[in-house]
Design goal:
Layout (H helix, E strand, L loop, with lengths): L4 H9 L17 E7 L3 H14 L4 E4 L15 E2 L9 H12 L1 H5 L10 E5 L2 H16 L5 E4 H7 L14 E5 L3 E2 L2 H14 L3 E3 L4 E7 L2 E7 L2 E10 L5 H6 L7 E13 L7 E3 L6 E4 L4 E8 L11 H14 L8 E12 L5 E4 L5 E5 L9 H14 L33
Parallel strand pairs: 1-2, 1-11, 2-8, 4-13, 11-18
Antiparallel strand pairs: 3-7, 4-6, 5-6, 9-10, 10-11, 12-15, 12-16, 13-14, 14-15, 17-18
Helix pairs in contact: 2-7, 2-10, 3-10
């Protein structure tokens, strides 16, 4: 079914009786060419691009819950490409360009809103660091502007510019950054993959791998064994547990990252704002709620819920940045299970087991990477060659002494 304004008008005139489910709910077949383990944004986008770009339609996506139950529906919806290092910046700029054409590509309203992101500057060394970052962004073709204090004041007069501890001296501004409706991304990719023949199988948890003579021949699931020529794993915070079933130990720790939404307010936040003196970021949803988050919780966990100390820490950051937030009531909060790599950068690579591939370690950056991650992962699985923009995301980079240390903090919560 093609979505359009005409279709909406037609259905409104006929009692909305012509709408069909966005994707099928098939039973798993006994064998596929490719199995994608994980029905989040990265898994669904991988399946979509496998079918669309590489003609691989005998593909199944296995999701242990329902579509949208994982991190793709548990984040703060921010997209950006304001990275520094050569291994990261071109990749995230590719993702940004794909976001800009996503809705037309999927024929689905993902509510892509490029309202920009402000990374606030509070001291001279930080200004130097952001100037360097902005130059790196421009070298990769991204947009970046270094704003002074008055330019930021004109955009956001409600910020606490006179804070004695954290005076605002300027900002790094990326106009093309913004937000996207997170669950719509999952639904759009699911619909697009399904329309090209991909089987999306929900409530199907992978419980083991069939490995013989160093080759992966399929998976064991709660709905029976399924054979496959290739198995591509992308399960975010569950990466360590799932890959342990194949006998692999990953350089990853799992933590919970909390997000919060306030009551609906009148429009005030122009785009996305990040607090440069602490870990706090905020935007405003179309319903008026302030969407914000901060640090990961300081303990390892596989639970999708967090603790009160981080709630207090995040709210303190918000109060230091814009004291008016203290009058807003918190409406709801949730936790996403994220896979923190040792250098803060992801992996898209083949494993030592033939036919088994891994995508993970996205830390805070998983949602914004969804289109490029899916495309580069599909390229790797289909061709057995890494995509040029993801060539640095190797599993063996620590052994080779080639970490992509974007912030120098990795998975250590006390360094965030």
């Amino acid at each position: 079914m093609h979505y359009s304004a005409f279709r909406i008008f037609k259905e409104a005139m006929t009692g909305n009786r012509g709408w069909k489910p966005a994707w099928r709910d098939p039973d798993p077949k006994s064998e596929y060419d490719i199995i994608v383990v994980g029905g989040g944004g990265h898994g669904l986008s991988t399946a979509y691009y496998l079918a669309k770009e590489f003609g691989q339609t005998n593909v199944a996506v296995l999701e242990k819950g329902w579509i949208g139950s994982g991190n793709v529906g548990r984040n703060t919806t921010i997209i950006r490409s304001n990275y520094l290092l050569e291994g990261n910046q071109p990749f995230y700029e590719l993702s940004m360009k794909m976001w800009e054409n996503l809705e037309q590509d999927l024929n689905y309203n993902a509510m892509v809103s490029q309202r920009g992101i402000l990374n606030l500057i509070h001291n001279d060394p930080q200004r130097d660091a952001y100037a360097r970052r902005g130059n790196a962004m421009r070298l990769s073709g991204a947009d970046a502007e270094l704003l002074d204090r008055e330019a930021v004041r004109r955009m956001c007069p409600f910020l606490d510019f006179e804070n004695a501890r954290f005076p605002i001296q300027g900002a790094l501004w990326q106009p093309r950054a913004g937000t996207v409706r997170h669950d719509a991304v999952a639904w759009g990719y699911a619909r697009g993959a399904d329309s090209r023949g991909v089987d999306i199988i929900q409530n199907c948890e992978v419980t083991g791998f069939r490995i013989e003579n160093g080759r992966c021949l399929g998976v064991e699931t709660t709905r029976g064994a399924i054979r496959a020529k290739k198995v591509a794993v992308c399960v975010a915070g569950s990466s360590s547990r799932v890959m342990a079933q194949a006998g692999m130990r990953l350089p990853i720790e799992s933590h919970v990252l909390q997000a919060f939404v306030s009551e609906g307010l009148k429009p005030i936040i122009p785009g996305v704002i990040t607090f440069g003196a602490g870990h706090f970021y905020v935007s405003q949803s179309d319903k008026g709620g302030l969407v914000f988050g901060g640090d990961i919780d300081a303990y390892n966990t596989y639970a999708q819920r967090g603790g009160l100390p981080v709630v207090e820490d995040v709210c303190e950051g918000g109060m230091a940045l814009m004291p008016m937030i203290g009058r807003a009531r918190l409406l709801r909060m949730w936790g996403g299970l994220i896979d923190m790599s040792m250098d803060g950068s992801p992996f898209i690579d083949r494993t030592d087991i033939d036919g088994l591939y891994f995508n993970g370690g996205w830390c805070y950056g998983g949602f914004k990477a969804t289109p490029a991650s899916g495309y580069c992962y599909a390229h790797l699985v289909a061709t057995d060659r890494p995509h040029p923009t993801a060539a640095a995301y190797r599993l063996d980079r620590f052994l080779r002494g080639a970490p992509i240390d974007e912030k120098g903090q990795g998975a250590q919560p006390n360094l965030h």
